[in-house]
Amino acid sequence: MAEPSSIHIPVNLADYTPPVFQVETVELEFDLHPAATLVRSRLRLHRHAAGQLHLNGRKLKLREILLDGEPLGDNLYSLDPSGLTVFEVPDEFTLETLVEINPAENTELSGLYMSGSGFFTQCEPEGFRKITFFPDRPDVMARYRVRMSADAKRFPVLLSNGNKLAEGEEYGRHWAEWEDPHPKPSYLFALVAADLVAVKDEFTTRSGRHVDLGIWVERGDETRCGHAMASLKRAMLWDEDTFGLEYDLDVFNIAAVSDFNAGAMENKGLNIFNTAYVLASSATATDTDFQNVERVIAHEYFHNWTGDRVTCRDWFQLSLKEGLTVFRDQEYMADQFSAAVKRIADVRLLRATQFRDDAGPLAHPVRPASYLEINNFYTTTIYEKGAEVVRMYRTLMGREAFRHGMEIYIRDNDNSAATVEDFFNAMQAAVPEHNIWQIMRWYEQAGTPEVTAEETYDPASRSFTLTLRQTTKPTPGQDEKHPFLMPVAIGLLDAEGRDLLSETLLFHKAEQSFVFADIDQPAAVSLFRGFSAPIKLKGQSRERLAFLAAKDTDLFNRWDALQQYATAVLLEAVAAHQDGQVFRLDDGLLEAIAATLREAPRDPAFTAEALLLPAESLLADEMGVVDPDAIHAVREATRAALGEALRDRLNSTYWEYGKVDPADHSGPAMGARALKNATLAYLAASGDASRAWEQFNNTGNMTDRLAALTQLADLPGEKRDTALTSFYETWRNTPLVLDKWFSVQARANAADTLERVQALTRHEAFELRNPNRVRSLIGAFSANQAKFHNASGAGYRLLGDMVLRLDETNPQIAARLVSGLSSWRRFDTARQDLMRAELERILAREGLSSNTYEMASKALG
Ligand code: 0A1
Ligand code: ZN
To answer: What residues does the Peptidase M1 membrane alanine aminopeptidase domain cover (predicted)?
Structure first.
């Protein structure tokens, strides 16, 4: 049940105080029963600061409480909905409690809950307090020993953090004891008791430690674990090679669970994963899924050092572990595949999600100053923008100094709970000759800086002057912005596109000029190469963009120039459409896309990215008043016209890249498939769906199957219905694939998408209790701009209904969906009224969770 609204009290970074008591050791005993689990806890505590002993605890039934072995009288402690206060305690003592909890009724999926065949935990950020009374904050680090017992038949596998000490069986129940030698915060505690089977392997670290690896999944899923295991071993090796970081336990287990609020969790020695990021086979997973599995496996593994060994002092520092670990997984993936294509994909995501948030009512800094509900702050700002900030450190410092800074950071903060300042200090220590303090503004100020550039060439002095200006719009609570320090990777190109020079400028003022001497000709400048800072570059001329799209030696900027060029062309066409003019394909865009196709053999994966027009949501971000229908009409007309005009070339490219081994998931194979399917999409857009139909019926590879189904789903009619029915019949018992069946319909660009999504919410396979299913239907639909923003407001109502229903069972997931309504101010007044009405309807609900309350009230502004 949701809690009363009186508890909406913000937590402020400025109010941080150190813990009153530290915990040295934790002994936990779980007597596991679905509806009534008993948890006995013995904590060894010692005083750390003045104050009273308060332990967090939620929905716990206290059965016993003992201090140094003696039962504690009722008048010596008090209980309230937030926890337990013990009035008088010595400076060192043992506190023992026995509590009862109900995992079967835990639909929030935080704490100890049931899913599929067993018990699982999720403790980050504040789930441990739903298991036992504890100072549930990351700066309390303790050593854990865990004993659990459960029905031996139903829950044959018993796992926790660290190493297994002993196990046994008695009277049909069995037990196991685990010990984790490393001190850790409570949010990294994990327990699994379930009917799972393991895929096992091993890894020997550089210094000779033998590590047993296990991936635990439901029976029948073992065949889909190979990619996850191979990824894990690659990640372990990479972290040794790249950062000198070795694994520090003899066991590394991963357990997969199908009901999970997020992607995966880095619990020490026992990662718990959403099945979506473990299971993959060519028949069931797309190439994107394969890459996501690899990325998330690497991400959670990398947390062992950046998160577990060095953790966060408080949740305001969340980006300290998340931004850094995302940066590490990005670098890992760039090393496995094409670095430029990886960068393009990452920036695409950043722009579509983070830039959008940073421009709206939910904008917050990488280190927020205040929150109501920390679960609402697992955002792309904390993760992806945080990773960009780490990347800027490295660009400013250079690779070697950055690695040295990382060594200092780990050395100085090992086994402790650190802050963003600790990271800064380590990096600054690695470059004592430079003062980089100004980078800290990226943690404090929200918003995306906008940069403009002015160039002048003076033939007399043969000097080229570049003047850069930066401004950042106000964001909630921050009216005035100070200039950011940003590395600007640039290249000066001659008329043939040869690099005259390339270097990195330090841009740290509102306006700054850079003079380059000995330049023989007026040069074209390529700015922010590789997206060297998370900013919006404005005011580039179309001629310049066309030149860079064709000639830039920096692959990222070549892609970006084409994106910006296409954005300008499409926005112009949107304005013309609103004016009632007939659509006309821009010659320059046609030529640029044709040239891109001609160059396909150079790099098919890059070509696939370059062929993709800017998303509707990105075009919306550039409009004063968003017109989702005009954007949709124009973008579709452009795709159709390009498909028509380039039909022959698209066909030949389709066939050329069509012969990839369906079981091959190497970079080149995935690149070829991506290119083939990009051409398929253009051909279908121009009205030729025959190829999609053929591909759908003749492939066993999920990337190809889903790409074809995506095209068919756009075209109401018999083929669509037959394809969807056959897909459903084939995969109705494979949840992760069934998720795709839902999302392909939710993303569809068909006249009847809204009605179909409404019907799908009543489909027998739609499960509100399963976050993956909710995301695949409702999350996907709310990202389908043209359909979600249906002028009737029915899309908004559907979302509002779902938020209110979900808030009763899983507030974390409910709150996340609210962001679909947060952009209401960007639309016409009719839509504004409809969206605002939904937010108000949500807020009016009595007993709304603080999760949803925070998102809806902030969205309303
Ligand atoms: N630390 C995890 C993310 C995570 C956060 C919250 C969760 O449950 C509410 C679960 C996982 C990561 O970055 O992978
Ligand atoms: Zn993470």
So the answer is: 228-441
